[in-house]
Amino acid sequence: MKKIVVSEAGTASNANLLSYAHSLAEPLSAKVEVRDNLAENGRSDVMLTVVEPDTVLDTPYLVVPDGFKYRPVRRIALAVDFLSADIHAVQSAASFARRFNADLVIVYITGDEREAVKSRKHGADFLNEVTCKINYDRIYFRQVSAVSVAQGLDWYSEFGLVDILIMTHRSTNDSASVGEGFCRALAPLTNIPLLVLPEGVYPVF
């Protein structure tokens, strides 16, 4: 059986992380394990690690805001850039959403109107490719206009009735919505859990 790992660090939020991990365990068909060394999480038996904000790992990890209480997962948002690797991220996110029978909303943040018109075409093409390659009938697309990616994702997380936000942590910051620095900066701002998929690591949940 796969494992959801929680750090053994004696922080005030540890009990909250452990509670959230246990709530995820049944729908994910996983068991919860507490470890004092998160470096061991590269092992194949680890599904994901539940951590507090300001933590970055090279394996899939779920950042849970301080004091956040588990609620049923009905809608999951995935931030994309319309890169070819995003299809793999959608496949991974869809396998996660399927566990909860949840909607999966592909979210793209755009700036000015000219970019918005262009991105709508990209969005339609991307969603068509997703439909052809991924067998999950609860995938939707949403374009959000905002002055920055962080603002757009924060707004949609709060007002889009989203229960978990998923992002890809890429090795460079060339892309608008990725990179270690971006994920680290966004994690404390969101009021919902943030599931981070390191670049090239797209697990089937």
Question: How would you characterize this protein structure?
Answer:
The chain starts with a strand and ends in a 7-residue tail after the last strand. The chain is built from five helices and nine strands; from the N terminus they run βαββββαβαβαβαβ. It has 205 residues and is α/β, with parallel strands linked by helices. The radius of gyration is 16 Å and the shape is globular.
Q: Helices and strands in order, then pairings?
A:
Blueprint: E1 3-7, H1 14-25, E2 31-35, E3 46-51, E4 61-63, E5 75-79, H2 86-100, E6 103-110, H3 113-133, E7 139-145, H4 149-159, E8 164-169, H5 180-186, E9 194-198
Parallel strand pairs: 1-2, 1-3, 3-4, 5-6, 5-8, 6-7, 8-9
Antiparallel strand pairs: 4-9
Oligomer: single chain
The secondary-structure class comes to alpha/beta
Evaluate the radius of gyration.
Answer: 16 Å
Number of strands: 9
* Largest β-sheet summary: 9 strands, mixed
Strand order of the largest sheet: 2-1-3-4-9-8-5-6-7
Low-confidence stretches: 174-180
- Which descriptor suits the 3D outline? globular
Short overview:
With 205 residues, this protein is of the alpha/beta class. The chain has five helices and nine strands, in the order βαββββαβαβαβαβ.
